Amino acid sequence: MRESAWIGIDFGTSGCRVCAVDQNGNIIAQIEQNLPAAPHPYLSPKQQSLYLFEALKRLVKQLPAVVIESISIDATSGSVMLSDHQGNPLTEMLMYNDQRASMASEKIAEKAPINSAASGPSSGLAKLLYFQLTLALPEKYYLLHQADWLAIQLGATPGITDYNNALKSGFDVVENHWPSWLELITPMSVLPNVVAPGTVIGKLSEAVMLKLGINQ
Hints:
Blueprint: E1 3-11, E2 15-21, E3 27-34, H1 45-60, E4 66-75, E5 80-83, H2 102-111, H3 124-134, E6 142-145, H4 146-154, E7 160-162, H5 163-166, E8 193-195, H6 206-212
Parallel strand pairs: 1-4, 7-8
Antiparallel strand pairs: 1-2, 2-3, 5-6
Helix pairs in contact: 1-4, 2-3
């Protein structure tokens, strides 16, 4: 029997780190793909996907006789963008430390509970409101967190996130739903469906498997 592996991806501000573990949790391969050093305008969504695939291809080359069971992604939850319902980008990605949403965050503070993680310009919700206030948007679109965008590139369904990412966008992790006060901020239809971390949300397409060099 061929050995199995599970791949984890950590996409941060300085690099993309990819690790494969076996069924006992032992690291059997790992790669770090550095991103361009600051100062620079942060990478576009499409550039981020290029770095993701480059790191994954390098990792997969170290695992020629291994069955990849699943892939999981984490990234900066306060980094968000908008896409259409097919997952095509409508905006740039505003990184977690981008301060352009300062005025939008003040509007949120008027409506949000005092202890909400969606308060402040670093929140995903503030950046969503900033996009809505400054751009002409189509009727239908989704809020995407950085990990959501990268997962879509591998085959995830657009419009799905997990509650770790959604926390800073206003999701109530105690009651497990988007709270009603958000209706005072944004159309609820733009908010993604929320699942628990680790939930399967897609499958690698034939094109993605060919691109990565995976044949199962």
